[in-house]
Amino acid sequence: MNLSELELDALTEVFNVGVGQAAHALSQLANTTVMLSVPQVDVISKLNVSTELINQGADRVCAVRQQFSGVLNTEAVLMFPVQQSLQLVQMMVGDEVPLEQLGEMEQEALAEIGNILLNSVVSGVADVFKLQFEGSLPYVELGPVRDVLCAQGDLTDQVLSLQIDFAIETLQIHGFLLFLLDVESVESLKLTVERFLAAMS
Amino acid sequence: MNATIDPCNCPPWSAWVLDHLQLGLLVLDAGNHIVFANQWLLTHANLAHDAVIGKPLLEVFPQIKGSAFERALAQTIASGYPSLLSQTLHPAPLPIFLPTSQRGKDKLLRQSIRIIPSGRQASALMDQQYTLIQINDVTQPFMRERLLKAQAGRLKGLAEVDVLTALGNRRRLDEVLPQAMHAARKSAQPLSVVMFDVDYFKQFNDLYGHLAGDNCLRQVAQILRDVFRRPQDLVARYGGEEMVAVLPETHGAAALGLTEQVLRRVYALGITHQGSTVADRVTISAGVAVYEPGAELSPENLLKAADQALYRAKSGGRNRVCGPG
């Protein structure tokens, strides 16, 4: 998939609208201000994603996955290094006691947080591009980066990748949001962005 | 308004199955009126069929007004994407109870809720958009996890306690000291560490036996606990007769003052010690080291500095405290 600089910038802007809505919903949930931003959207291989995460010292990640289907079909995967996912849940629960591990109950909380974020982001994108999707419920997975990334397909697959930066009080968390796309969906994404840019100019 | 699924299209057992599912089901029509509630839900909400069907959701469950559940429902219907409300973030959004509990002792169930809107395709096959609310009772897993966590916490606590003195042990010290130094850096407050050693303890053991030695250590430990009693203070047994106090937000002069108090109290215990060359009773020596935030110092080197101060107190005649530097 080759998207031009201009197309990637447009996508970055569109995604920032979506995370803005997510930040509002998460702030209500956390009872404190949650700020979210997407510094850059990229099209990279899964291999690059895993290398980047491993370089950050996060060989194990916690992922929230959801399917979206429509004009284009995609699986959205929101990933956090395990340690950061613990901090995120702790912050949302408002618990003083540091969590040692992600139990069943914490995983469900993370599923809810991911669900809010993914739904807001996808509905933001759907609104701007005038697309319609149907979504699935979230599903949480814990494991080594590569296992999580390669549930389907292989490491050379290209994905649409967004880094999502969370700022909650003094806490800084970097999550990765990936959209796994099949070949036809890549084409329709490119067409959609082109059409959107043409309508703007 | 109250459209129900055409019974002709349903297998004969469908209603029976829905009523015997061990989870709650609610179906709302496009106007948020309840068009279906299964038996599990009616039983656990203690509501009659007629009090529910055809009624607006907010009329049947007024307590959800303004709640996260109401927001999630509105969001789900607007976006068309399913959503999840976790027990951890919202323990019990709906008034659903354990059916067997006695009156007046109603036990709210812990709930995990999924809100599923009928998508465009499914809605097209029906007469309008419906919303399914699925409620799982997660009270038991919740209790089980809480119990496991409490046990884990207790075991961790036990693993970090010195059996003889009930002070923290070396493991606890190794865990707390780096955290305390980190906190000192963040708050820009000094951190004092004091190392204590009972004078001529080996001779005391030889003269009076190990039981008396143990007893002596317990009494000294109690004094340390009494003097360093702020919640943020930690006192740990470091080695045989060595003990360490970690004192956040405490500068050297304050630590010296408190340590002198410890020395006086140990002296006042009046535990006879004929093997001591400095007194007729048990005494202790101490060394104070201070961590000034900004200084490049590892926890090991901070302890070493306290140990060096202790050594100076020992070589300076014992039953005394030496400060930093």
Could you describe the 3D structure shown?
The complex is a heterodimer of chains A (201) and B (325). Chain A has a single domain (5-200), classed as Chemotaxis protein chec (3-Layer(aba) Sandwich), CATH 3.40.1550. Chain A has 201 residues and is of the alpha+beta class. In chain A, helix 1 (5-30) crosses helix 4 (104-129) and helix 3 (82-93) packs across helix 4 (104-129). Helices cover 48% and strands 29% of the residues of chain A. With 325 residues, chain B is α+β, with helices and mostly antiparallel strands. The longest helix of chain B has 21 residues, at 139-159. The interface between A and B is medium-sized, with 30 and 29 residues.
Structural class of chain B: alpha+beta
Question: Main β-sheet of chain A, in a few words?
Answer: 8 strands, antiparallel
N- to C-terminal distance of chain B: 85 Å
CATH topology of the largest domain in chain B: Alpha-Beta Plaits
Strand content of chain B: 15-25%
The most extensive contact between chains is: A-B, 30 and 29 residues
CATH architecture of the largest domain in chain B: 2-Layer Sandwich
Assigned CATH superfamily of the largest domain in chain B: Reverse transcriptase/Diguanylate cyclase domain
Number of helices of chain A: 6
Count of beta strands of chain A: 8
Strand order of the main beta sheet of chain B, please?
A: 2-1-5-4-3
The radius of gyration computed from the alpha-carbon positions of chain A, rounded to a whole number of angstroms, is 16 Å
The helix content of chain A is 40-55%
- Mean pLDDT across all residues of chain A, rounded? 88
H/E series of chain B: HEEHHHEEHEHHEHHEEHEHE
Q: What is the β-strand count of chain B?
A: 10
Globular, elongated, flat, extended or rod-shaped: what is the shape of chain B?
Answer: elongated
